[in-house]
Specification:
about 625 residues, alpha/beta, seven-stranded mixed β-sheet, three-stranded mixed β-sheet, 23 helices
Length: about 625
């Protein structure tokens, strides 16, 4: 039994429901879906209908709610198909005024408005069913969690028959929340959106749906169960598959808790909890595609350059452990992963060095040596980097550069800087100013301003016990001037420290925009400027001029930037800074403090962080 079959005996309801489903299907075909969001098309709507059928007919033919009348079934069925039409751009006449985010965040209101005010004339309900628009628009509006379900009218009387509005809205909300089908995230579209610049939030949703196999509604136990297929390795890089599924469990549980008081009144709908059942499998369906989906996690959090190189190695190591992966496929995957990572964070010398060593492995004649060589390289890099961070942390007291009462200006985020700060004694007596040097430019591979690294560093410094402040990079020279006039803190000393993208063969530093201007200001005010780095970021000859990606189109958050583009005025911003060795006081590495010319000496020898292939 299903809602559609139940309505077959009611010719009017059955006929109108068929028209509505056909109309919505046509809307999904003609109108523009919002890019980057998981699909809210006819497949999603059909699956929401299926979830309602599972809840209403848990044992096949018997209704979970025997007293559910045909009018309520009619509203549920058509509500399942109309609740997300507000996600379609072009549905309403004034859509051109609004951004995609605005449409997404108001989509339930848009759906309700379309039902109540813009009902297409081709779907003539007749004078006897005008109540339907009012009832359905309310049910659709309250299907979203952010709208308090208790504010929905409990009942609406239609020709003397009570229609339970809160119950229907609750059922629709839960059926929608439990629609986790991978059909909503087709791989071909994920690839396209990723190439267009899909951001972290969207990517997370698209990736996690890949794991869900089914969702079941267990009436007797009161559980909603999310079934997932998990590879026996369970992890990929830093990411745990079970933990990712548990995120979905938590989200559906939150939705359930908003409607549980209403559903609990009905024995057949008294769902209390959401659980997961993970089946471990040796061979994961579309395993390579799954890795492709999770690989962008390397770049989506915008980690420091060293962390990104380590994650690149980490994910490759995981890929090597997958049974049945042919060496050539591993090479192809490594090449694609490197290209994606390199394009999104150009000038990462540590990453370039990892790739250089992998290239040597790929030249091996015997394919059996390729897999073992990849594992050797990646394992070594992971171990060497962690060892370098531990040594920087342990050597912090010996470095003796930062003393109680000093003001330390930290530029952006760096794992090496974090390790140094962790190892410095007397945290509470040192003052930290974290500057956001990244700026708020919209880089060509991101759809949001890339300006959160300093915030992350400030939060971590505060958690360590430092007296922490956050400043804009443009203000840093002002503090240099103020400290010259009158010391800001007891020692009167200011020290600037930052992480590194790479060190070139002339001792200069490659970094993100903003570092050069602060280094020049530090030199002018005679303030020490130190870079903290692993020696794995020493550039070999082949990568001494890291590639810089020129965007295919310009992005900017400058107010009225569209006016500039329309007037054919270019917006110029650098994507990388090159800080000359003359502006750098020294490099703090796992081998201690070095002058720029001393670091250059290391380029003549084999890089200590790189194994021989």
């Amino acid at each position: 039994m299903s809602m559609r079959r139940l309505l077959e005996s009611n010719r009017l309801y059955h006929h109108i429901a068929d028209q509505i489903i056909e109309h919505v299907t046509q809307l999904c075909t003609k109108l523009t879906p919002l890019p980057f969001y998981t699909l809210h098309n006819e497949v999603h709507l059909r699956n929401v209908e299926s979830n309602l059928d599972k809840m209403l007919f848990p044992r096949g033919d018997d209704l979970a709610l025997p007293q559910l009348n045909e009018t309520e079934v009619f509203l549920l069925l058509t509500g399942a198909w109309l609740h997300d039409i507000g996600m379609l751009r072009g549905l309403l006449d004034d859509d051109i005024k609004f951004t995609d985010d605005h449409i997404r965040h108001s989509h339930e209101k848009r759906s309700a408005t379309y039902i109540s005010d813009c009902w297409p004339p081709t779907l003539d309900l007749g004078p006897g069913l005008q109540w339907y628009k009012v009832a359905l628009s309310n049910i659709v509006f309250y299907h979203r969690k952010r709208n308090n379900i208790s504010e929905c009218a409990p009942e609406m009387f239609v020709e003397g028959l009570a229609v339970r509005m809160q119950l229907l809205a609750s059922l629709l909300r839960l059926a929608d929340a439990a629609e986790l089908s991978g059909e909503r995230t087709p791989d071909f579209l994920r690839r396209l959106y990723f190439a267009m610049g899909m951001n972290a939030g969207h990517l997370e949703h698209w990736a996690r749906y890949q794991l869900v196999n089914a969702v079941t509604f267990e009436q007797q136990s009161g559980e909603i169960v999310i079934h997932a297929l998990i590879p026996k390795t369970n992890t990929l890089g830093d990411f745990d598959f079970r933990a990712i599924v548990s995120i979905l469990v938590g989200e559906v549980q939150e939705e359930l808790e908003t409607v549980h008081p209403i559903l609990a009144s009905y024995r057949g709908l008294a769902y209390r909890t959401v659980t997961m059942k993970c089946q471990e499998v040796n061979y994961f369906p579309n395993r390579n595609e799954l890795i492709q989906a999770f690989a962008p996690y390397i770049v989506m959090e915008q980690p420091s350059a060293g962390t990104m190189a380590a994650r690149f190695a980490d994910v490759l190591l995981e890929a090597c452990s997958i049974p049945g992966q042919a060496p050539q496929r591993l090479q192809d995957y490594a090449a694609e992963l490197f290209q994606r990572t390199d394009e999104r964070r150009p000038g990462n010398v540590a990453l370039a060095n990892v790739w250089r060593d992998l290239q040597a492995v790929f030249r091996q004649r015997r394919l059996s040596e390729v897999r073992s060589g990849m594992e050797q390289i990646t394992r070594h890099w992971l171990h060497a980097r962690q060892q370098a961070l531990d040594q920087i942390k342990a050597s912090a007291p010996k470095v003796d550069l930062i003393h109680p009462g000093d003001l330390v200006v930290v530029l952006g985020y760096s794992s090496c800087v974090r390790a140094l700060l962790t190892g410095i004694p007397n945290h509470s007596e040192v003052h930290i100013y974290v500057a956001e040097v990244r700026g708020r430019a919209l880089l060509p591979w991101r759809s949001e301003p890339e300006a959160s690294e300093g915030i992350s560093m400030a939060l971590e410094a505060k958690a360590m016990g430092y007296d922490t402040s956050f400043v804009e990079a443009a203000w840093v020279p002002t503090f240099f001037e103020l400290n010259k006039q009158q010391p800001l803190y007891s020692s009167g000393r200011i020290i600037v420290i930052c992480g590194v993208r790479g060190i070139l063969k002339d001792g200069s530093m490659l970094n993100t925009p903003g570092h050069l201007s602060i280094a020049i200001a530090a030199k002018a005010f005679d303030i020490p400027f130190y870079a903290v780095t692993e020696l794995s970021k020493l550039a070999h000859e082949s990568v001494s001029q890291p590639r810089t990606v020129k965007p295919s189109r310009e992005f900017s958050d400058i107010p009225h930037s569209r006016k500039l583009r329309d007037a054919n005025i270019s917006i110029r911003r650098p994507y990388l800074d090159l800080v000359p060795a003359s502006l750098i006081t020294g490099y703090i590495t796992e081998l201690g403090v070095m002058q720029p010319h001393e670091v250059i000496v290391n380029l003549e020898a084999e890089n200590p962080a790189v194994p021989s292939p």
